[in-house]
Amino acid sequence: MGETEKEKLLETEEVRQRIADLKKKVGEMADYIRIGERREKLAGLEALQAGADFWNNQNKAREVIAQTNAERAYVVPYDSLLKTVEDAGVMLELAEMEDGDAQQAALKDTLSECSKADGFFAKLRLQSLLGGKFDQCNVFVKLHAGQGGTEACDWVAMLYRMYQRYAESQGWKVEEYDTQPGEEAGYKDVYFRVEGPYAFGMLKAERGIHRLVRISPFDANKRRQTSFASMETVAEINDDIDVEIKDEDLRIDTYRSGGAGGQHVNKTDSAVRLTHLPTGIVVACQKERSQHMNKEKAMNMLRAQLYEYYEDQKKAEMDRFYGAKSENGWGSQIRSYVFCPYTMVKDLRTECETSDVNGVMDGNIQPFIESWLQMKAAK
Question: Which of 89, 129, 240, 305 is most deeply buried (CB count within 10 A of its CB)?
Answer without folding.
Answer: 305
